């Protein structure tokens, strides 16, 4: 047990190991110390602040003077029930958010996928096309909003048709003229219509309401947002298509598959992870949409026709000084984004480990 | 379309080929319409700009007066605040915010890729969440924290350029860290191991091995951060709510939101605002797109 050779062995293994360990330990500590400021900053500015917003949303702080009286879920209740203006506005926000997200996603995916498949066909000047499709991503939503607001300004009797409407008139498509983002019309089931009366009679009267429908003005936001983001979708799809080995497609063609079948059975299924990424990235941008709405329609659309939760939150909080009410909208927004992003982050992390 | 695929290979200019180009060009027009209207409108004189019936026409006389008014503002009616102050403020915000957050991202990425400790990936995932949150969920505490900080230290934060910079730096950490971490992960760890055996320490490995190899990642992150800081509106409008510290996006929104400002001036202001990121895009587009892709997490 205490033979000389054993003692030597111990010495041989301990001495260098101790030195190695101490250097290792020291550098490990340094590396963590380097990361620590960022960790602390994000712990406070992301997680701490979110918790604080959550706390504020449960208080009575709805004036300029902070008031941290606990009121439970009262601020949330105001948004969902009670019939006040806050509730109506929030219901319209959710209606607009759903309509916008749906059409924004559909148009970006269709345009992005179409352009990516076309660009993949050995196109001359592919680089130029790509640059043109993608440049809107470089500029601010505010610029996009200003430009599209002008293009989509419908005009009035004193000015005559303006923008797109003028263009449509000039090419004989006057029938397609629209009031664009100034349109107060909401597609919904009228309560006094036959269907509305039927729904009411079966206890679903809530569906025959302006807060269940689609506001026509949202289309203008979709056009501008898809203009900005569809090129990005194209780039994601193109990268995805290019990562599919050519042999796979060639093999299918040799086996007699038509181009359509190659897409249907090989390319589209292999692109489903890209589609998932596209859906999550676009949907989370859509949920947070703020700048574009402010610059495009800020205060111009009647009846909250283009209002969104993020805009409502900002106005309620900083214009209206209803801090607790604003915090409750922010928390709902965070919940929506979180249910989308957290599984995505977990999925991505798992994929990386593989 | 399917049936014509083999024919396409024999005859390169089959009509499906023409159709493909036609669709692509049609989309190009759609993407370029706002650029056309911005340029055309901003080059028109006031009088010509007022003729709505010709708003899609090229200007009869080229003029840059609208750019001058958009930049300097106008004291004669219709009174307009200029964009110049906001433009300069955005430079004063975006440049330091970009440099500092890029540096932080680089060193964080180094630790998270080459000095992985237990739980490093978990910490990294927690950091990443910060780049997806709606900033509305942190705005109220951010404003309160700035005010509290000022009452404790006497250093003003709210409505200050440096207050906006701090927000951009902190909320920029996740994306900067992500891009650098993914980039450094691709560099062989053996290189680091070998240097360590040769006696290099934590800092010398970073300085002598990783930094010289980091140039592409630096370009990507610098571009990305500059563009996002320049294009930011939410932090600007919340944290810098005094005209003297407005960033350019807020100035533009005010100019465009005012009904008195003639639209040729509005369009000129929009063009000026879009110019720096567009310039970056034209000169360094390749790197910009890489940053864009990183935003979807896949390195």
CATH superfamily of the domain at 89-157 and 219-353 in chain A: MetI-like
Count of strand segments of chain B: 2
Distance between the termini of chain B: 35 Å
What is the CATH architecture term of the largest domain in chain B?
Orthogonal Bundle
Helicity range of chain A: 55-70%
**Largest sheet of chain B, order of strands side by side?**
1-2
Q: How is the CATH topology of the largest domain in chain B named?
A: MetI-like fold
Work out the radius of gyration of chain B.
25 Å
Structural class by secondary-structure content of chain B? mainly alpha
What is the CATH superfamily classification of the largest domain in chain B?
Answer: MetI-like
Largest sheet of chain B: 2 strands, antiparallel
Quick one: biggest sheet of chain A? 2 strands, antiparallel
Strand content of chain B: under 5%
Question: What is the overall number of helices of chain B?
Answer: 14
Largest interface: A-B, 104 and 90 residues
Topology:
The complex is a heterodimer of chains A (354) and B (299).
Chain A lengths: L3 H53 L17 H7 L4 H35 L6 H9 L6 H11 L3 E2 L3 E2 L1 H8 L15 E3 L5 H8 L11 E3 L2 H25 L3 H9 L4 H12 L1 H16 L3 H7 L11 H11 L3 H31 L1
Antiparallel strand pairs in A: 1-2, 3-4
Chain B lengths: L4 H6 L4 H28 L3 H4 L15 H8 E2 L5 E2 L2 H31 L5 H10 L6 H18 L7 H26 L2 H9 L4 H12 L1 H17 L2 H6 L8 H10 L5 H32 L5
Antiparallel strand pairs in B: 1-2
Helix pairs in contact in B: 2-14, 4-14, 5-8, 5-11, 5-13, 6-8, 8-11, 11-14, 13-14
């Amino acid at each position: 047990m205490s033979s000389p050779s054993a003692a030597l062995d111990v010495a041989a293994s301990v001495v260098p190991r101790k030195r190695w360990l101490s250097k290792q330990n020291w550098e490990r500590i340094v590396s963590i110390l380097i990361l620590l400021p960022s960790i602390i900053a994000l712990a406070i500015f992301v997680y701490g602040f979110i918790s604080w917003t959550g706390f504020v949303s449960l208080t009575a702080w709805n004036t300029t003077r902070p008031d941290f009286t606990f009121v439970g879920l009262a601020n949330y209740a105001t948004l969902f029930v009670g019939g006040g203006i806050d509730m109506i506005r929030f219901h319209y926000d959710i209606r607009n958010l759903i309509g916008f997200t749906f059409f924004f996603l559909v148009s970006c995916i269709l345009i992005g996928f179409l352009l990516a498949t076309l660009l993949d066909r050995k196109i001359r000047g592919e680089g130029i096309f790509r640059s043109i499709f993608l440049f809107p991503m470089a500029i601010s939503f505010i610029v996009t909003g200003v430009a599209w607001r002008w293009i989509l300004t419908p005009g009035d009797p004193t000015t005559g048709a303006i923008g797109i409407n003028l263009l449509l008139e000039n090419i004989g498509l006057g029938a397609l003229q629209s009031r664009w983002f100034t349109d107060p019309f909401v597609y919904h089931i009228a309560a006094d219509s036959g269907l509305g009366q039927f729904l009411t009679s079966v206890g679903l009267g809530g569906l025959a309401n302006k807060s269940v429908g689609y506001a026509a003005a949202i289309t203008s936001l979709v056009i501008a947002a898809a203009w900005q983001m569809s090129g990005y979708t194209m780039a994601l799809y193109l990268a995805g298509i290019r990562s599919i080995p050519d042999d796979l497609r060639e093999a299918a063609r040799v086996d007699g598959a038509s181009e359509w079948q190659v897409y249907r059975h090989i390319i589209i299924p292999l692109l489903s992870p890209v589609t998932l990424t596209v859906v999550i990235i676009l949907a989370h941008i859509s949920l947070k949409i703020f700048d574009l709405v402010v610059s495009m329609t800020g205060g111009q659309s009647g009846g909250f026709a283009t209002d969104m939760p993020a805009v409502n939150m900002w106005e309620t909080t900083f214009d209206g000084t209803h801090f607790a009410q604003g915090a409750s909208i922010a928390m709902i927004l965070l919940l929506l984004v979180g249910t989308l992003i957290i599984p995505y982050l977990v999925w991505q992390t798992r994929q990386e480990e593989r | 379309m399917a049936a014509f695929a083999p024919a396409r290979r024999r005859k390169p200019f089959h009509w499906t080929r023409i159709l493909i180009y036609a669709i692509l060009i049609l989309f190009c027009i759609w993407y370029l319409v706002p650029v056309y209207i911005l340029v055309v409108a901003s080059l028109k004189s006031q009088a010509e700009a007022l003729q709505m019936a010709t708003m899609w026409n090229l200007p009869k006389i080229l003029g840059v007066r609208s750019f001058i008014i958009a930049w300097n503002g106008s004291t004669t009616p219709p009174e307009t605040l200029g964009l110049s102050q906001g433009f300069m403020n955005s430079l004063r915000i975006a440049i330091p915010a970009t440099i500092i957050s890029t540096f932080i991202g680089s060193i964080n990425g180094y630790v998270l890729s080459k000095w992985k400790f237990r739980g490093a990936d978990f910490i990294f995932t927690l950091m990443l969440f910060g780049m997806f949150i709606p900033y509305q969920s942190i705005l109220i505490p951010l404003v309160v924290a700035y005010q509290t900080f000022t009452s404790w230290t006497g250093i003003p934060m709210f409505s200050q350029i440096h207050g906006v910079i701090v927000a951009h730096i902190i909320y920029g950490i996740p994306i900067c860290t992500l891009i650098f971490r993914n980039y450094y992960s691709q560099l062989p760890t053996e290189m680091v191991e070998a240097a360590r055996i040769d006696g290099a320490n934590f800092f010398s490995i970073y300085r002598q091995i990783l930094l010289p190899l980091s140039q592409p990642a630096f370009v990507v992150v610098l571009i990305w951060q500059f563009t996002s800081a320049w294009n930011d509106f939410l932090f600007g409008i919340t944290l810098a709510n005094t005209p003297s510290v407005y960033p350019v996006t807020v100035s533009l929104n005010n100019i465009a939101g005012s009904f008195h400002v003639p639209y040729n001036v509005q369009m000129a202001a929009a063009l000026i605002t879009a110019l720096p990121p567009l310039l970056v895009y034209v000169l360094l587009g390749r790197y910009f797109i890489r940053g864009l892709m990183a935003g979807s997490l896949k390195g």
